[in-house]
Automatic annotation (TrEMBL):
InterPro entries: Uroplakin-3, Uroplakin-3a. Residues 1-18 form the signal peptide. Keywords: Membrane, Signal, Transmembrane, Transmembrane helix. It comes from Chrysochloris asiatica. This is Uroplakin-3a.
Amino acid sequence: MSVLRFLLALGCLRLGSAVDLQPQLASVTFATNNPTLTTVALEKPLCVFDSSATLVGTYEVYLYVLAELASSKNDSVQDHTGNPLSATFQQTEGGRTSPYKAASFDLQPCSDLPSLDAIGDVFRASEILNSYLIKVGSNRACLLDPNFQGLCNPPLSAATGYRFKYALVNMSTGLVEDQTLWSDPIRTNRLAPYSAIDTWPGRRSGGMIVITSILGSLPFFLLLGFAGAIILSFVDMGSSDGETTHDSQIMQEAVPKSLETSYTSVNRGPALDRAEVYSSKLQN
Ligand SMILES: *[C@@H]1O[C@H](CO)[C@@H](O)[C@H](O)[C@H]1NC(C)=O
Ligand SMILES: *[C@@H]1O[C@H](CO)[C@@H](O)[C@H](O)[C@H]1NC(C)=O
């Protein structure tokens, strides 16, 4: 828990005036697989808008999403009267033309943050995480449901850069009171190419592959050696009858002395010797 406290303290230190802050990707401590192919988990803007003074009244935070390569250069999230935009995912082609409103939630007062001590409690963990994190792209059903009312937060596109912005809306006036900067582009994951998908449980290193293939071919060599041994034993059985042995002894003796001496400078193997023996025998 002390790690979480430390991260939170860091998060709060990073905060100053809301205007020059950016939404941040959720820490790996909270969200291990982030971003995914279709979702991005962000830290909620805790103590961002009310860090200096407590806000009186009711406020909501709106989360806007804009594709990195949006066609419009106008990334404003409010109209000229200060009313927050309510463009949807469908209307903006998933943030490709202009920002869309992906989520809204009550402003959690800086003085009243849920304790992280209870995060180990499985029954409260998700509730606590919800007060710290917001997941963009978490609602798959709303696009397919024609009767869906409310804010649609459908899955993002894979391998696409997105920017995010929080706006503080005063619910008494309905106006944008404050807003963060746009985040740096955050890319969703891309599908791993087919070749990179390793079906073997536990990836193998190059060294391991070499060892495995050596071990794999070992039975082949053993079989080869075994077959060789069998063949040799048959050959030995054949040569054990007196005739051939005697013959080869004769051949050895038949090497002419003159031939032997004239070839002394040549490094001869036994096979060569035998060839000479045969040739000399043929001459005889
Ligand atoms: C940007 O878009 C908003 C909302 O559509 C609009 O009110 C505003 O006038 C636009 N700003 C510019 C500079 O076009
Ligand atoms: C929000 O609106 C109320 C009512 O108009 C106003 O009293 C309050 O000051 C506004 N909040 C901010 C932060 O301006």
